[in-house]
Specification:
Blueprint (H helix, E strand, L loop, with lengths): L4 H4 E6 L2 E6 L3 E2 L2 H15 L5 E5 L5 E2 L1 H16 L3 E5 L3 H9 L7 E3 L2 H13 L1
Parallel strand pairs: 2-4, 3-5, 4-6, 6-7
Antiparallel strand pairs: 1-2
Helix pairs in contact: 2-3
């Protein structure tokens, strides 16, 4: 059974970087994919939004999630923002590698590393 939208996607500020955490261990249902898409689209409406999407605890996802991520990156970049990914389970990371999305996205082992990367670039 799908959770509420707040259960699926949690958005918080981490020192000027927007952290998005997924609250489910699998994102397979249409409602879950759409909730993620809506959350990312809303973030893209804010110019210059710096977003880290953490997959911590996510073990399964549908290919539609990959499509949402590609679209979100495009929308964020159009408004001067950026999307970085973190905490991807090694089995899911293989999907990113096979689809060559590991070259398309900046992917970090942990969310704190992804957040710090934005701060380091701002200091440079």
């Amino acid at each position: 059974m799908a959770g509420t939208e707040d259960d699926i996607v949690r958005v918080m500020d981490r020192g000027g970087v927007t952290l998005v955490r997924l609250g489910l261990d699998s994102i397979l249902r249409e409602a879950e994919v759409e909730a993620l898409g809506r959350a990312l689209a809303a973030l893209a409406e804010v110019p210059g939004q710096r977003v880290v999407l953490s997959f911590l605890g996510v073990e399964q996802l549908t290919s539609r999630v990959l499509g949402q991520l590609i679209y979100a990156r495009k929308c964020l970049e159009e408004t001067g923002g950026e999307l970085r990914l973190a905490d991807i389970d090694p089995r899911l990371y293989e999907v990113f590698v096979i689809a060559r999305l590991d070259r398309f996205f900046r992917i970090f082992e942990r969310e704190d590393e992804a957040i710090a990367s934005f701060h380091k670039e701002a200091e440079a």
